[in-house]
Write the C-alpha cells for this entry.
Amino acid sequence: MSEPVTWATRRFKFFRRPFHEYRLTDRVVLSQTPLFVTSILTALLMWAFFPGTMDNPLFVAFLVSQLAIMALGYFVPWDRLPYTSFLVIPLLDFASIALGREGGQEGLTGIGLLAVFPVIWLCASGFYPRASLWLSFFGPLAIIWVPLLIRGDVSGPSLAKSLLVPVMMLGIGVSVSVLTLSMMRQQRTLEEKDKQLQASLRSTRQQEALLNSVLETVHLGVLAVDADGHDILMNRKQRANHELARPKDIDDPNESQLLVFAADRTTPVPVAERPVRRAVLGETFTDYLVWLGAGKEQRAITTSARAMKDPDGTFAGSVIVFSDVTDLVDALAAKDDFVASVSHEFRTPLTSILGYVELLLEDNPGNDQLDPLNIIKRNSERLLTLVSDLLATRNGQLIVTPHAVDVAELVRASVSAAMPRADASRVALKADIPARLEAHVDGPRISQVLDNLVSNAIKYSPDGGNVLVSLEHDGGHVACRVSDTGMGMSADDQAQVFAKFFRTSNVRRTAIPGVGLGLPISKAIVEAHGGTIQVESKLGQGTTFTFRVPV
C-alpha cells in the first residue's frame, strides 16, 4: 500500500527541496524562522520562570518586533524589489535583539547571543562579504555598547568585558563566509558542469533522433547486438526481415528456429553459420548471401557485419546490415537462362555448318576454294567453343586437357593472326618471346585466352598505339603479359572487369562492339589451369593484362 499523503508529509517534502529552488519570499521566511522560533521559546521560558519580565516594555517590544519582522518577510514582495533588499531583515534583527537583551536581563542572560542568527544570515547570503564581516562584529557590539552609552556607563572595564561576544560573532561570521564562498564556488562549478551536461544531452538526443530517422529511412535492415548477442538496435526494415524469417506458428523464435536458407533456397543454414551468430562470434564479413522465409515470400538477403570495440579494444558487439537483393538475383538467373537458351540454339546450326564444311573439304581436296572453307571451319569451331564455354561457365564447369605445349608458338600464332586487324587499326603489334617455352597446358584454351587479350588490346586502342605481348618463365610459372597504350580503365572499372557482360563506361560511350564475355571466359580458363590473371591500368594511358599458369 502507498503511504497516505498528509500535511506533515507534504511539509517534509517541501523542506527536502534545495534551498535555492524556493522563491525569494520563501527563502526570506525560512532564513528568519530560526530566530523567530527561538524568540518564541525565549518568551515561553520567561513566562514560565520569570513572569515579571513579560511586563517589561522593552521585552514586549522585542516580541512584537519579531512578529512584525516575520510578517514583513512574508508579505513584502521581495521579488519586485532590488534583489539584495531583503538584507534589511537581519539589520532589523540586530535592533530587535538589542531590545530583547535590555528587557530580559532580569530573567534569562545571554539573550544577546541571538545575534548569531542575523550574523549567519548576512555572512551566508554571499552578498557584500566584507560589509557582512564588519556587521558581524559591530552589530553584536552595538547591541551591548549602545545601552551602556545611553546609561552613561562608559568605563574601560565595562566596555572591555563585553568584547568576547562580538569577537565570537566575528569568528562565526568568518567561518560562515569562508564556507559560503567555498560552496558558491562549488555551486558555480556544478552549474557550469550541469550546463555542459545539458548541452551534451541535447546534442546526444539530437544525434539519436537523427540516427533513428536515418535508420528508419534507409531501405536496409540494420541490427546491432551486444557481445552476448542481445539486440541493441533494430530498424523498421530489419523488423520486417525478422518477421519474414519467423515461422508462422512460433511467436518468439530463437536463432535456430528462424527460416534461414542457403543459396539453394531449401537447405537450412546451420546456426553457427548464420549471419547474426557469426557476428556475435566477432567475425567480419561482406555480402554473405542467405534466403529468408519460405514459399513465394522468400527473399534473397546479402549480409555484412562489422565488429564494435570498446576503448580498451575489447569486443563489444557487432552491427549487421541486411540488403534485399532478390530482384538482382532473379535478374541474374534470368540472364543466365537466356544465355543458356541462346547458346543451345546456336549449337545446332553451328554443328550443321561444321559438318557440311568438312564434307566439302573431303570431297574437294584440290579445290581452289579450300582456304575460304578452312577459314569458315576455323571460325565455326571457335564460335562453337565459345558457345560451349558459355554453357560451361553458367554451370560452373570448364574442362581443360593439359599436355606438353610450346607456349611461345601459341603466342606467335596469336600475334600473326591478329596482325591484319592491327594494321587496319594503325596499331603496332609486337611480340617479345623466347624461341621456345614449353608448359603443360591446354593449347587451344590458352590460345583462346591469348586471342581474347590481344584482340581487346587492339580493339581498345582506337586511335592507334602500341601493343606488346611478352612471355617469360617466372618461378615455376609461365607469365604472359599483353600491354597496350590505349584508353585504359578507371579503378572502379578494373574492380569489375572480369564480371560477365561488364563493359567500361568509356567503351559504352565509344560504341566499340563486344558483349563482355571474353575476359570472364579467359579468367575461367586460366583458373581452371590453377593460374591467376591480373589487370593494371590507368585511364587514358593504357592497360596490361598478366596471366600466369603453372609450367
Remarks:
- Confidence is low (pLDDT under 50) at residues 1-12.
- The CA atoms of residues 360 and 366 lie 11 Å apart.
